[in-house]
Specification:
mainly alpha, two-stranded antiparallel ribbon, 8 helices, 2 strands, rod-shaped
């Protein structure tokens, strides 16, 4: 049906559409006639509120309350997107790798060495290498727990007690060599 001449039909106002959806979202939980809860603001309602704000009108008290209730979710979503962008830059992973290497230098234990290897491989965008390092770390931990590592690892990679024992044995062997060298030097000097 065509419009009568001279009558202009106004297109649907997004604000009115949003308010109608908002009124439908109000819920009376206890039946006293006063809405007790507001369903989350829909995108259509948000667009209506934005259109009204662009026209210079402020949101009503109910709309402001609905927007305030919806703000934490929107903030979480925006923080999540920001974190994804930050992680995609690779900077945090490089920082984690550097920190893990420093920890491994300070405490060269199996877990810290494994962590350093995995973090470094991930910083280099090599997840398969990181998986290999993780597997090697688990293997080393299993060997250490079963006592197999003492038989397989050189003294430099064994535990702290083993390293101290190996260091004392090396110092004793070096002292014995030094005595032997000085004894031979004395014997050679006496012959001359």
């Amino acid at each position: 049906m065509a419009n009568p001449p001279g009558v202009m039909v106004r297109p649907s106002d997004p604000w009115d559409d949003g308010m109608a959806a908002y009124r439908q979202a109000l819920v009376d939980l206890n039946g006293d006639g006063v809405p007790d809860a507001v369903m989350p603001v829909t995108n259509q309602q948000r667009r209506g509120i934005q259109a009204r704000a662009m026209a210079g009108r402020d949101p009503s008290t109910r709309e402001a309350a609905a927007l305030a209730a919806d703000a934490p979710r929107l903030e979480r979503n925006s923080n999540m997107l920001a974190n994804v962008g930050y992680e995609a830059s690779g900077i945090p992973q490089a920082l984690r790798a550097g920190s893990a290497i420093g920890e491994a230098y300070q405490d060269p234990s199996i877990p810290s060495m494994t962590n350093a290897g995995v973090q470094t491989a991930m910083a280099a965008f090599r997840p398969l290498a990181a998986a290999k390092m993780l597997g090697l770390g688990y293997g080393a931990a299993a060997a250490s727990d079963s006592g197999l590592s003492n038989a397989l690892m050189p003294p430099a990679l064994a535990g702290r007690e083993e390293r101290d024992k190996a260091r004392a044995a090396r110092e004793q062997a070096n002292a014995a060599r030094a005595e032997s060298v000085s004894a031979h030097a004395n014997a050679d000097a006496e012959r001359l």
